[in-house]
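Need tokens for this chain, all 625 residues.
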Amino acid sequence: MWRRLLLRNLWLAVLLGAAAFGSGAAEQNGASHPRRVALVIGNASYEDQPLANATRDAAATGKMLSRLGFEVMTYSNLDHARMNEAVQEFDKRLAAGGVGLLYFAGHAVQVGKSTLLLPIDAQGSPVAPITQGIDLNSILAGMQSARRDRLNLVVLDTCLNNPYDPANVSMVQPPSRTIVAYATAPGTYAADGARHGTYTAALLRALGQPGRNVEDLLDDVARSVSLATEGQQVPWVATGPAAAADRFQFAPSGGRTSSGGRRMMTPDTVVAYQSRGILPKDSNEQYELTFWESIKDSTYPSDYEAYLKAYPNGRFATLAHARIDRLRAAASAPKAQPPAQVDHARAVTPPAAPVPPAPAPVEKAMAASTPTPSPAPAPAIKTTASAANEIKDCAACPALVSLPGGTFEMGSNSDDPAERPVHRVSIGRPFAIGKYEVTIEQWNACADASGCPHIDMEGDASKSTPARNLSWDDAQVYVKWLTKTTGKTYRLPSEAEWEYAARGGTTTTYWWGNEMRKGYADCKDCGEPWRKDSPVNVGSFRPNPFGLFDMNGSVWEWVGDCWHSSYKSAPTDGRVWDEAGCPMRVIRGGSWPDGAAYMQSSTRFKYSPSVRQSQNGMRVARDMK
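Here are the structure tokens for all 625 residues:
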């Protein structure tokens, strides 16, 4: 079974390959295909910052999807009420079964972990986008109806910037059988073009050409957007578990599309990079003051909650919490009953506005919302191999294990196509690699020395748990700091070095054999110690034959290589496989919320290098000279 990872960048190409075979395929092959329903929305007539192409984008996308066999509901310029109604109608139609696709072009903001799609009336004041925006999480929850052939696709041609606090951007993983494709990376802008958004133009070009496989679509869309924006916009995709969608196509060979798709082969000219982001007229500091002034006399707790969502550490945060507590207390306090003889007591002052109910929790694919206690991690198992050849270049540096060069068979021909073909790699030089993953304590040593950014590692984790929520760019900053601090050449391991180290001289599926065994990896269903909310301390499970801990599970580990969809033409000498303008980097090893299938030594996937994600960490390497 092909492994499909949680919140992993499949790129837009994988998203486009996710829909079931089109009507042309059914005609050609004589096979039935799942029903497909699409909701397409283009919002452009915003009062403050209107958009030029959003409605045109929606119209073109709706027509293209209709040609490809979708039942399409297309709307433009919806206010809050009408947009909610459209989503509810979409959910009702989708409940009958099949693939569901939501496309939205318009303004959106990313505030903390919420992606808010903006109706046309969600402007006019700083609080409006938060209180009137349609939270993507609620849309995804509505699309999760149990149904036949369930596959949920969401395509957002929007910006993902936070106009309140640019640093407060944190994406969450989608529910199961769900893929969300963003036009750009979290915290960044989506470019507009002369006739269409740059992202939508690439999407339409790819959809309009029959017979495109996943790799072709990936190359076409990703490279087109990157080229048109000179690398300033990189499409980004989040994937939920069990979204095995790469076996499908929109327009198989022999499928029929109109010439309208083919006429769009010439890339759109980019007009503005910030055209789909809400841009405050004032500085961030002044915008916060404007926000507070607009709500400071409100009697609705939801207004202060909106402020705290935008500015969790804002200058008025303490006051906002106090106002919320006071209003909630007033709403829940028992009302005094006046004496019966006082007739005018019927004219009682109305109570404070009731507190709106908390939103229903959205399904979390990889972690429960409430942590459950777990036993303390077992001490690291000491072996001869784990104590040998250990190197430590400074007190705050990660411990390293020196490995000789060697030859091994890399990859797997029995699972994910990205792991094929198996090929012989010869690593000619010795190198050192982290005995453990980089810990929170080690990362914070760099941050305290002003060499690395301070990053929220999420949860109440101990200093000996692996550092996580790290981007590939963060990892590069850390190894540069180690290099400067020690005078040694630190770096990320190459993908070949990583798999060589993970296998530990073995040729089996896992380093311990061909079957999963409890107590060998920090993963779901892999045995104690394990906990739902975060990885356990490094070194809590058995080391592999090279004396390396947690190569399987715990957190995904960045390597130096650019992502390629297979090992065809991969280097055979163990070096980093890189290229200019690389849009995706490789991650290896699985993580603690993943199941046993992700613990295989050959497991590999990709992620946007600039995005922080709570399951991604790192292990260092350095040259031995």
